[in-house]
Amino acid sequence: xxxxxxxxxxxxxxxxxxxxxxxxxxxxxxxxxxxxxxxxxxxxxxxxxxxxxxxxxxxxxxxxxxxxxxxxxxxxxxxxxxxxxxxxxxxxxxxxxxxxxxxxxxxxxxx
Length: 111
Known about the structure:
alpha+beta, about 40% strand
């Protein structure tokens, strides 16, 4: 199975009526392995800041988490493993694996 198939068939699939608005698998070096059509164009410095936060949890909190030029407020995650960001009715979750970052965006429609 290709990484693109994993994004398309597993990360972007519908679960109990909900689905991610975009997703990607990104190498620790910032290289895009696979992404949904709606995934924002991320900047190398954004990935560097994310990787730094995995090494030094809490380093993003004062400045915010940026992805695709959009700022997210950092909310509780799992130090060294998961970073979560919130903006308006949605947010982003980033999971670090041994070789990549799994990134998923969700726009919530409930009130």
